[in-house]
Amino acid sequence: MGKISEHYSTRRLTTLGIGGLARFFAEAESTEELQSLIQRAARNKIPHCIIGRGSNLLISDKGYDGMVLRLKPRQLGGIFQTDGRLIVDASVTLGHFCNFCAANGIGGFEFLCGIPGNMGGAVVMNAGAHGKNIGDHVESVQFLHKGGTVISAVKPAFSYRHCHLDGMDALLSVDLRAENFFTPPEKIRRQQTELRQWRSNRQPSGPSAGSIFKNPDGHSAGKLIDDAGLKGYTIGGAQISQMHGNFIINRGNATCADMLELIELIRATVRRKFAIELQLEVHYLGPSGFEII
Ligand SMILES: Cc1cc2nc3c(=O)[nH]c(=O)nc-3n(C[C@H](O)[C@H](O)[C@H](O)COP(=O)(O)OP(=O)(O)OC[C@H]3O[C@@H](n4cnc5c(N)ncnc54)[C@H](O)[C@@H]3O)c2cc1C
Q1: What integer pLDDT is reported at residue 74 of this predicted model?
Q2: In angstroms, how far is CA 60 from the centroid of its own chain?
Q3: In Å, how far from its chain's centre is CA 273?
Q4: For residue 160, how far is its CA from the centre of ligand 1 (angstroms)?
Q5: What are the pLDDT digits (tens) for 244-255?
Q6: Is residue 83 over pLDDT 90?
Q7: Most Cβ neighbours (<10 Å): which of 28, 56, 100, 200?
C-alpha cells in the first residue's frame, strides 16, 4: 500500500498551488487500494475526501482535518475498448485519454483536449468545452458508495458542471459511448492541436483553477467580470487575469484568503452592476470538508 503522509501541504495537490496542511495524504495505486485506505480512515474515525488532479479546487489556508486521497495516474492501461464503448479508470488523466483516442482513431472526445484533470474529476464535474460535456457520453459509472459497497452500472444525472450520484464516495470507473471508432488519427490530432491553440490564445498560462464561476444562464461570467472593469484587479497574490476575466491567477504567493476576498469582491460588483448572482464553479475544501460558498 502507498505511503500515508502526515501534515502534507495541499499546495502540491492543486493547479492553483494554494492550500494549508492536510492531516493525512495518500495516493492509491488502484481502486482496491483506494477502498482499503478509505476503510482504514473510517476505522480510525478520520474523515476523508477524494480529489482528482486538483484543477478545479480551492483549498483553505487552514488545510483539511482529515485524509486527502487521490488515485495515482496510470502511464499505461486503464482504458478498455468493448462493443463500441470505452471503460475508463477514474485515475486516467484526460491528457492520456486524449492521446489514446488519437492513437486509436476514436473520434468525438476532442473537446476534452487541454482540460487538465483525470477521468474521475471530469465526470464528477461534468467537464466540457465547445458546447460538449463528458456527461453526454456517459453510459454508466462504477462507484464506491459511502456505505462501503461498490455499485456498478449506474447512469448518473448530469447538469451544468455537476454530476448527481446518490451516496457516492469515490468514482472508480466510467463506461463511455464513443461517437466513431474509425476516425483517421491524423484528423483527431489536427483537431486537438487547433483546440490547444484556441486555449492558449484565450486562457492565461499562470497557475489557476480554470473558470472560477459558472456562466449564469444566457451570460458569460468572464464577460460580466470584464464589463465590470475588474480585469487585472489584484488582492495580495491573487489577480483577475488580464487575458480572461473568469480566471484568477496565483502570482506566486496568493493565499486562499486572497482568493476568497477577490471572489467576494467580484460577486458584489457583478451583483451591484448587473443584478446577477455568480456561483462558484470551483469546489472549496475547508478544514471539515467540502463547503458551498
Ligand atoms: C487551465 C485550466 C483550464 C480548464 N478548462 C476547463 C474546461 O474547458 N472545461 C471544464 O469543464 N473545466 C475546465 N477546467 C477545470 C477542471 O480542469 C475540470 O473541472 C476537471 O474536470 C477537474 O478534474 P480534476 O481531476 O482536476 O478534479 P479535482 O479538481 O481534483 O476535483 C474536482 C471535484 O471532483 C471530486 N473528485 C475528483 N475525482 C473524484 C473521484 N474519483 N471520486 C469522487 N470525487 C472525485 C473532488 O472531490 C472535487 O469535488 C480547467 C482548469 C484549468 C486549471
Answers
A1: 79
A2: 17
A3: 30
A4: 13
A5: 999 999 999 999
A6: no
A7: 56
The phi, psi pair for 107, rounded to 5°, reads: -95, 160
Residue among 278, 257, 280, 275 at smallest CA distance from 267? 278
Judged on CB neighbours under 10 Å (0-12, 13-18, 19+), 88 is: buried
What integer is the mean pLDDT of 26-46? 94
Catalytic residue among 55, 91, 161, 241: 161
pLDDT given for residue 287 in this prediction: 98
Could you say which DSSP state residue 83 is in? T
Q: Which domains does the chain have, with CATH numbers?
A: 4-71 (3.30.43.10), 79-201 (3.30.465.10), 205-291 (3.90.78.10)
Ligand 1 pocket, residues with Cβ under 6 angstroms: 15, 49-57, 90, 115-118, 120-122, 124-125, 127-129, 170-171, 203, 208-210, 283, 290
Is 211 designated active site? yes
